[in-house]
Write a structure and sequence with these properties.
single chain; mainly alpha; about 70% helix; globular
Length: about 600
């Protein structure tokens, strides 16, 4: 592809920055809300592009603006929004809540802001030496980047498509907001309310306890249905299988044996099942990553080529390597200082985390380019194991160094995905680089107070309302490395070995029997089911079934409607959820 000419159209305008910061910030709240409930997060780039197109088209029609919102402006806006939307990757849904559950102490808001922002900034800088080799030379696909670019071409080439998708997203957002309001708002004047728990018909019991004690009921929520529609069929049925095994078979049996706390409920069941789920996620992620060893070798070799200096006119238009060195020299010591100042991590260990984070960012970016999956979970676990050996028994060091490396990898991969869109559209990579910085600031401004409002104390984490499945896994690995196997109940020790073995088996089956992949459970999905309440899993499965039926019966409608409608459900309900939490704080609800 010849990309030697970069267009002179307006790109990173003030209105693109403001729109990206607002849209990305609000969608960051959605990701925070959903991730704390399900352990999954979702890309915001395409949704932000659709919304921005519709908003500016409306403003132009009513003559509140004078010029059309151009395609490259929208591309720059997407870069801002994407960086903001992924600020949950800075630790607010994994390492930070995991640390809170272990210590019982909440992180100060100012501390959290500087912590997640500095990690994200450093991750953006780490992408600089990778862009030219991975995107310009090797032409790695970065499928989400291609999809975002093609969406912008379709929107700005055919206004009808953009208007249709925006309308669907808007209607779904209203539906999600209404469901959340009538479920969570406790006003006497409301004519009716939607129950949080919709029990199965009949008086079904397990081991003389109602099904709801094992979290086996329907969730009165559209968020989970939307999440299931986006996550896909294989992950959803794998999670349902895990939920049936864990909450329908193992938990009742362990309760009858007196192994699980007799109070039951999600918090007491997951105290046992997290060991099975964490072990499966850990071994499957590490083995799948090991099978990508050629990707690792290519990644390290390819980036070394970027340090040779610019040689062509096209290379001179890239983000200069001097920005990389300046960024690392400024931001590296800041992150190391914050590791020491906030968490007491030794300076030399902080330096190792930055060094390790550079290589993890390389691997994460290349894996994203080749597979559209950023393996931050597996890469974070590598850091946890590394520091489990360097500083045994210290769960804080274990978690927060992994937070650094995982966050750097995620934000580097996110920038390269955006740069892939810009490369296709002939955008200016330097402007996209700065766009990410604006997004990081916006995401931090939105996500920190929202996290403090939703999670005021550690007590609410690990409950049915905020199960935080991702944090459960990080916490489990940190505690296991710190305390050792011998501190666990014998059945939990057995669960670790069984989960670890099955994680390896499923990955091997996928690798050597790819024809049967659709029949092999997803190890990640199955493992997450052991750290997620069954009611969430049931609703997600329902959403996946609806999406699958649409794909089979009306594929055109599915292509146009599934993502906008599901995104609308998630955005509408999560926004009202955050708003009601704010009203409670001020005594208005």
């Amino acid at each position: 592809m010849d990309n030697s000419i970069i267009t002179t159209q307006r790109q990173l305008t003030i209105r693109a920055i403001i729109a990206g910061m607002l849209l990305g910030g609000f969608m960051c709240l959605s990701n925070l809300y959903v991730s704390l409930k399900t352990g999954w997060s979702f890309g915001v780039t395409i949704t932000a592009g659709i919304l921005a197109y519709a908003i500016f088209a409306f403003l132009l029609r009513v003559k509140l603006i004078k010029t059309h919102f151009g395609m490259l402006e929208n591309n720059a806006m997407q870069s801002v929004a994407s960086a903001a939307g992924f600020m949950t990757g800075g630790g607010t849904v994994a390492a930070i809540p995991a640390l809170m559950m272990i210590t019982g102490e909440a992180m100060d808001g100012t501390q959290m802001f500087f912590w997640i922002s500095s990690i994200a900034f450093l991750g953006v800088v780490m992408a600089i030496p990778m862009k030219q080799q991975m995107i310009n030379v090797e032409q790695l696909r970065f499928p989400s980047g291609i999809a975002a670019a093609e969406t912008l071409k379709a929107l700005h080439g055919d206004g009808a498509e953009g208007t249709k998708k925006a309308r669907l997203l808007g209607f779904a957002g209203i539906a999600g907001a209404l469901v959340a309001f009538f479920r969570d708002a406790q006003y006497k004047w409301l004519p009716f309310s939607i129950p949080e728990r919709i029990n199965f018909p009949g008086n079904f019991m397990l081991r003389d306890r109602p099904l709801r004690d094992f979290t086996l009921y329907f969730e009165g929520s559209l968020i989970m249905i939307g999440a299931g529609a986006i996550m896909g069929w294989r992950a959803a049925w794998s999670m349902l299988l895990g939920a049936v095994i864990n909450f329908g078979i193992l938990a009742p049996y362990l309760y009858a044996q007196g192994i699980i706390d007799t109070r039951l409920g999600y918090k007491h069941i997951v105290a046992w099942s997290v060991w099975f789920g964490s072990a499966m996620i850990l071994t499957s992620g590490l083995l799948a990553f090991a099978f990508q060893w050629k990707t690792v070798v290519r990644a390290v070799k390819s980036v070394s080529a970027a340090f040779g200096g610019p040689q062509t006119l096209e290379e001179l238009k890239e983000v200069p390597m001097t920005w990389f060195f300046i960024g690392v020299l400024i931001l590296g010591p800041i992150v190391i200082f914050l590791e020491w100042f906030f968490f007491g991590i030794k300076i030399w260990m902080g330096a190792i985390s930055i060094f390790l984070g550079f290589f993890i960012a390389i691997v994460a970016s290349r894996a994203t380019g080749e597979t559209d999956t950023t393996p931050t979970g597996a890469l974070g676990k590598i850091t946890q194991i590394t520091f489990g050996a360097l500083d045994p028994g210290n769960t804080t060091t274990n978690l927060m160094t992994a937070n650094v490396t995982g966050g750097m990898g995620l934000h580097a991969a996110d920038l390269l995905t955006d740069l892939k869109s810009g490369y296709i559209l002939k955008a200016d990579p330097r402007q996209q680089f700065w766009a990410q910085f604006f997004g990081v600031i916006a995401g931090s401004i939105f996500v920190v107070p929202a996290y403090r409002i939703l999670i005021p104390t550690a007590d609410v984490l690990g409950t049915e309302r905020w199960p935080a499945p991702g944090a459960q896994t990080w916490k489990g690995v940190a505690e296991l490395l710190a305390k050792g196997f011998h501190t666990l109940h014998p059945t939990a020790q057995a669960a670790i070995w069984v989960g670890a073995t099955l994680g390896i088996v499923f990955v091997l089956l996928e690798k050597f029997a790819p024809r049967f992949r659709r029949f092999i459970p997803s190890a990640t999905g199955l493992g997450l089911a052991f750290t997620t309440p069954a009611n969430n899993t049931i609703a997600m499965f329902l959403g996946a079934v609806i999406a699958l039926l649409l794909e089979n019966k009306k594929p055109t409608l599915a292509d146009d409607a599934v993502v906008p409608v599901a995104s609308g459900f998630i955005a509408g309900e999560s926004m009202i959820g955050v708003l009601l939490a704010v009203l409670v704080i001020f005594g208005l609800s």
